[in-house]
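Q: My labmate handed me this sequence with no annotations at all. I'd like to see what the chain might look like in three dimensions before we decide whether it's worth expressing. Could you predict it?
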Amino acid sequence: MEKSTKTWIDEWNPDDATFWAKTGKKVAWRNLGWSILAENIGFSIWLIWSVVAARLKAVGFNYTTDQLFQLVAIPGLVGALMRFPYTFAVPKFGGRNWTIVSALLLFIPTLSLIYLVNRPETPFWLMALAAATAGLGGGNFSSSMANISFFFPDKEKGFALGLNAAGGNIGVSTVQLLVPIVVGYGLLPGSAGKKLHLENAGLLWLPLIVIAAVGAYVYMNNLTSARSNFSEQLVVAQRRHTWIMAWLYIGTFGSFVGFSAAFPLLLKTQFPEVTSNLAFLGALVGSVSRPIGGKLADRIGGAKVTFWNFVVMTLATFGLLYSLQVKDFALFMTAFLGLFITTGIGNGSTFRMIPVIFRSYHAKRVQGQGESALAEAMIVARRETAAVIGVVAGIGALGGYFIPRAFGASIKATGGATLAVSWFIAFYLTCVGTTWWCYLRRSFLTRRMPSLSNAQA
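A: Here is what I predict for the chain of 457 residues:
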């Protein structure tokens, strides 16, 4: 791979076809590749407690089921909160620079886990604090997506952002596939045995963190055009579409990360007779389907894909509810995998909507003022898009906290998870209605934002 020759790139115009073909495309894809690696590792560490918590009792920890669900949920809450400063860090410090820093910060949760998981006397509050530091991995997504959004032309943003997100999201599947394998074995020759080596769940990622940090240092770039101050980014809080899209993204990405976090422990508590490691399948199909959602949105429109996707999500959740009531494992897996697929498609389609919405908004704002005003408006739109992506991703990630907590509370109160699933159905119905009301009604498209229809939001 060709080494980056510039730490900072001053001239960057990906929407210029000549620039893109000659220079931009190669640089953009190189940055995307290393961004995916760093984000993948961040996601893996963010969701590492979804696997570790399900095995703590086996190594002597005396935590309740509700406490175990809390260990799964806490990284989701912290990860959601960390996404806000991580988003604003990219325009402040540069995408390459922040990728290096955010990768190195992952040593905190991995080393904490390595130290504590072999000490069953660890009080719950201290273990919860260690789990909270895994939320640092959740912040990587926002900074990565905000950074990559600057590199690609508008016509390719949906696929590029979908691919970037999918590469990161698949880290959830990676951790849920590999950690159960490595914790059954010692990393030193002759140390394999029946004892669980939970410390391996942290040791596995240490060399990969180093590779990601060094790779970002050598091969990635910062874009001068992406720089802005905090007040310029904070203006997106005044855009009502920021909050509408945040609500929808709770339904798509929030569901993905929340179900991913809860799935291993839910599977263990609701179907204890199942001993196969199947939990990784959900995150895998959800990750793979994400760029499909982006591609579909590029082709037929993000709002249409998002609307029908929420309809299917609602139906799949009804299937999940019924499977828990009748204790049918095959139906449970089918419904859950269907849910994961729709979370991935919805992730891609909702993120595709954001640049279209804000490009249309700013184009309408300067309508009739000439080409120079339009060009400046598009620069502002790209900056706001990056900020909105981070804000929406942060709010959406709260699903990583609320879904496991809902399952834990439901099991504690009723002995089962059906109450929580009923809440999810009600929420998805609000997402169906919100998408239709705000982005598909003919009166909205023709009266309030006419350019949005042509841009295939």
